[in-house]
Amino acid sequence: MGAGRRRGMTLMEVLIAIVLVAVAFGGLATAVTWSIQTIRASRESAAALQAAQQEIERMRNASFASVAPHTFAVPSLRNRDGTAVSGSFAVQDETATMKKVTAHVGWVSHAGPPPGRPMHVSLATYITKEGIGRP
């Protein structure tokens, strides 16, 4: 081999490589953190939607006369401070044989950014005296 050929890497090349790897891992860590927060927020929203849907179905299966405003528990979801979450059920009489019902669930999110933000979901539908699929 020629006497003028270099072998190995200079200190500057090693430092540049370390900086590039650190920047890449920093970006990766940020992406992973964001993904975890997004997944957590999605799980919270899914639990709230499921509770609202279950309450609407429970009222749909009840007698028409018993469909009234009330609150309901959401055991699958907790506020950021650990307190229980409850939902509200609103009823609006449209006609003598039809009611518009809305299930609303609100909570303080564990997920971010920023953590601790208020979240809510609402589902609305109509319930008729005759039931589903009947004229």
How would you describe this structure to a colleague?
By secondary structure, the chain is of the alpha+beta class. The chain has one domain. Helix content is 38%, strand content 32%. The protein is built from one helix and four strands. It has one helix spanning 11-61, and strands at residues 70-78, 84-95, 98-108, 118-128. The mean pLDDT is 87.
Descriptors for this entry?
alpha+beta; four-stranded antiparallel beta sheet; 1 helix; rod-shaped
Cα distance spanning the termini: 94 Å
What is the number of beta strands?
A: 4
User: What integer value in Å does the Rg equal?
Assistant: 28 Å
Which regions have little confidence, pLDDT < 50, spanning 5+ residues? none
The overall average pLDDT, rounded, is: 87
Number of helices: 1
Supply the number of structural domains: 1
Order of helices and strands: HEEEE
Q: Structural class, from helix and strand content?
A: alpha+beta
| Strand order in the largest sheet | 1-2-3-4
Strand content: 25-35%
Query: Could you give a short account of the major beta sheet?
Result: 4 strands, antiparallel
Question: Brief description of this entry?
Answer:
This protein has one helix and four strands, in the order αββββ.
Task: Summarize the SSE layout with pairings.
Layout: H1 11-61, E1 70-78, E2 84-95, E3 98-108, E4 118-128
Antiparallel strand pairs: 1-2, 2-3, 3-4
